[in-house]
Recover the amino acids of this structure.
């Protein structure tokens, strides 16, 4: 049985409003987008969190960003084992087919995935420890980041630091993909790490030389 129902009314009316205004007023631009294909200059890897709105904070239009979102903006290491790797597939397509010039990993404040990892590590979320927990096993990717900072902080400060470690883990894992490393070494691709404070609207960038986050 395929389970699918008609859209809820509020979404139907919102869509119809966009078709009559946003689309109708820019029809030729949309037609050109469709006929010319996509040529995004940047790939963004951000969290699924509904409050993270990367196109808004950069004022980006359709066609500008190739965006992949997952829990806690994590990139797994390169594992060519024949299994299904959704995040790795998007990175492969962005770098080898679209040939993006930038890959931007963006973490954020009050990240539920990172909070889950912290709770699991503190022994407060046994359900995430289960082998069957997709979230728990996905968040295991953050372990190397936790290993770097454990003992230095605890509680909310540790969660804040872990959100930034999630960005660093992803940047490190990106370089384990041979096609990413080759493009970076050929100066055809640059990697960037960001952390976004949702409440303050702030944006920090990761300075790899000083291993710290600085305001943009
Ligand atoms: Zn998040």
């Amino acid at each position: 049985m395929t389970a699918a129902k008609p859209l809820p009314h509020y979404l139907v009316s919102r869509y119809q409003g966009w078709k009559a205004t946003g689309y109708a007023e820019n029809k030729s631009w949309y037609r050109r987008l469709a006929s010319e294909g996509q040529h995004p200059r940047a790939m963004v890897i951000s969290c699924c969190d509904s409050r993270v709105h990367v196109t808004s904070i950069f004022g980006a239009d359709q066609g500008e960003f190739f965006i992949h979102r997952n829990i806690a903006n994590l990139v797994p290491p390169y594992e060519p084992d024949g299994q299904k790797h959704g995040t790795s597939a998007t990175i492969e397509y962005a770098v080898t087919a679209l040939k993006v010039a930038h890959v931007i990993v963006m973490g954020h404040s009050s990240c539920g995935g990172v909070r889950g990892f912290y709770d699991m590590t503190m022994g407060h979320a046994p359900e995430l420890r289960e082998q069957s927990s997709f979230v728990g096993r996905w968040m295991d990717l953050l372990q190397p980041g936790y290993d770097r900072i454990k003992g230095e902080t605890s509680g909310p400060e540790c969660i804040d630091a872990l959100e930034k470690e999630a960005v660093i883990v992803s940047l490190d894992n990106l370089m384990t993909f041979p096609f990413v490393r080759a493009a970076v070494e050929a100066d055809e691709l640059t990697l960037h790490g960001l952390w976004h404070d949702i409440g303050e609207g702030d944006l920090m960038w990761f300075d790899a030389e000083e291993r710290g986050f600085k305001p943009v």
In short: The chain has a mean pLDDT of 97.
